[in-house]
Amino acid sequence: MNLSDVYAVKLGQKRKKRVGRGRGSGHGKTSTRGHKGQKARKGYNMRTSFEGGQTPMFKRFPKHGFSNVVFTRRYTVVNVGDLNEMTDLTEVSPEILFEKRILRKLENGGLKVLGDGEVTRPLTVRAHKFSKSAVAKIEAAGGKAEVL
C-alpha cells in the first residue's frame, strides 16, 4: 500500500450550488430558472395557498361566529315497549342493558327512555332522562321512573 492509495471518503458532503457565476459553472445566464415566466423572476416566493389569482379559500370563508355543536348532548334511546318485552327483568338500568347486550355503547348524555310501545307490568327504570309519555306509561303500570 502506498500513500498515493489513501483518500478521504466523502459521505454526504455535497457542494453548494453557486448560481449566476458564469457559463463555465453550468449555472450561468438564467441561473437554473429556465426562460421567462413568473417563476423566473426575482422575488418569486409563492405561498402554498395561492390559487392562481382566484380569491383564496381563507378569504372566502367567514372568520367569525361560534358553534355549540361540540357541546350538544346525545342520548342513547330505548323505548318502553322494548323494556316490556324483556320478561325476565323487573329493574332496568344502563348497566343491566349492557349486560343483556341491548345497548352497545352509551352516548355522552346517557340513557333516555322514550314512550313508544306499551307497558303491561310494573318496572323500576333508572335512566338519565325520560320523556313525559314514558314516565306516564311506566307509572300507569305500577312502576317507577328514577332519574340518575
Mean pLDDT: 86
What is the β-strand count? 6
Distance between the termini: 89 Å
CATH C-level class of the domain at 72-147 is Alpha Beta
CATH architecture of the domain at 72-147: Ribosomal Protein L15, Chain: K, domain 2
Number of DSSP helices?
Answer: 4
What is the helix fraction of residues, given as a range?
Answer: 10-25%
The CATH topology of the domain at 72-147 corresponds to Ribosomal Protein L15, Chain: K, domain 2
- Percent of residues in beta strands: 5-15%
Low-confidence stretches: none
Write the element-wise H/E pattern from the N-terminal end onward: HEHEHEEEHE
Largest sheet: 3 strands, parallel
Note the overall shape.
Answer: elongated
Q: What structural class do the secondary elements suggest?
A: alpha/beta
For the largest sheet, list the strands in their spatial order: 1-3-5
Radius of gyration: 37 Å
Explain the overall architecture.
The protein is an alpha/beta fold. The chain is 17% helix and 15% strand. The radius of gyration is 37 Å and the shape is elongated. It has a domain at 72-147: Ribosomal Protein L15, Chain: K, domain 2, CATH 3.100.10.10. It has a three-stranded parallel sheet with strand order 1-3-5. The longest helix is centred in the last third of the chain and has 9 residues, at 132-140. The protein has four helices and six strands.
What's the SSE blueprint?
Layout: H1 57-60, E1 75-79, H2 80-85, E2 91-92, H3 94-99, E3 110-114, E4 124-127, E5 129-130, H4 132-140, E6 144-147
Parallel strand pairs: 1-3, 2-4, 3-5, 4-6
